Amino acid sequence: MVTVNILDASALIRKGIPKGKNITEEEVYQEIKDKKSKLEMDLNSINVYRAKSNYVEKINEISPSTGDAHKLSSPDKRLLALALEQKKTQKNIKLFSDDYAIQNICEELDIPYEGIMQKEIDKKIDWIQICIGCKKEIENKELEECPYCGQKLKLVPKREKDLS
Ligand SMILES: [Zn+2]
Fold first, then answer.
1. CA 136 / ligand 1 centre spacing (Å)
2. 135 CA distance to ligand 1 centroid (A)?
3. For residue 148, what are the domain limits?
4. Which of 30, 66, 98, 140 has its Cβ near the most Cβ atoms within 10 Å?
């Protein structure tokens, strides 16, 4: 049976999308479409759906109880609504997201999910590679070892404080 993968923005940006049928929500798609040229994404194999309003309402009802409401953007909520809808009609679904707020709602609704951060070593723009030895930032994402000291490289989120 084909698995329906529901992808958030970070999963779409990732190079090498999961096997199976890949879908996303229209707002998520619009959010990243502008960046498409920069990211060299292949969006041809992505099916774009619009979440139904009754499922969006359901997500709105549920999210305050888990304390995640303030962290969920409109595209986040619509993606969850789409996942909930798909769950009613498909046996095999999986939502791909590293967002803890999204993952928490998935737990609440018993929606299977998978993080992508651990596998993500490619084109995701908000992550940088740091050497665990000399702490240098390594721009070449193809490398697995530090070209300066030979230690392993670690992927870390790029935040303001990391840059100072
Ligand atoms: Zn190093």
1. 6
2. 6
3. 127-163
4. 98
